[in-house]
Structure to design on (182 residues):
């Protein structure tokens, strides 16, 4: 966080990440005006740790219904219904996880509706990191740090030059409109 701040990152309104405690604690220190949200995909995975593998598909559908609601209040109500249903299915631990963590996954509702789909998770970044890991594992051991950096930089340049790299992920002018209203 310190390095991002020193390099000039400012105006951040929302951080989306897993529930890494060090990261969440540092956000308050370096970006007190920014909100934090737990990635919905990480939330789902946390709930699934308390669900037998045969029931994961059904529980996944219930969890997705929470984040398909029209506003945060409706999502909270749906989460309480899902927790009750999980208890009926004798999945008390999963119900506890849903009740304890649901509010951490609903921060994106404060942003423009058009951005909700993009802000719920940090999957695009994770997909990029997975691609970099895949490429570096092929090499195995690098002779030095510069060679690893060159490979990663080459892959990032390739991604930036492709259609995926030129695609606009968010319309930032909508965020400016929200800031003007608030």
């Amino acid at each position: 966080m310190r390095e991002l701040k020193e390099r000039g990152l400012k105006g951040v309104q929302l951080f989306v990440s897993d529930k890494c405690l060090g990261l969440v604690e540092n956000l308050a220190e370096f970006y007190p005006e920014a909100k934090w949200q737990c990635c919905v995909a990480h939330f789902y995975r946390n709930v699934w740790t308390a669900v037998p593998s045969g029931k994961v598909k059904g529980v996944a559908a219930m969890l997705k219904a929470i984040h398909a609601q029209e506003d945060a209040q409706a999502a909270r109500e749906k989460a309480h219904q899902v927790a009750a249903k999980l208890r009926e299915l004798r999945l008390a631990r999963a119900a506890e996880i849903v009740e304890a963590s649901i509010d951490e996954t609903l921060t994106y509702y404060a942003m423009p509706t058009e951005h909700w789909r993009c802000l719920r998770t940090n999957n695009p970044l994770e997909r990029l990191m997975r691609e970099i890991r895949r490429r570096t594992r092929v090499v195995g051991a690098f002779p030095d740090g510069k060679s690893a950096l060159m490979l990663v930089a080459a892959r990032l340049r390739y991604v930036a030059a492709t259609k995926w790299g030129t695609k606009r992920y968010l319309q930032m002018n909508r965020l400016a409109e929200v800031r003007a209203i608030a």
About this structure: The chain has two domains: 2-119, 123-181. The CA atoms of residues 22 and 69 lie 30 Å apart. The radius of gyration is 19 Å.
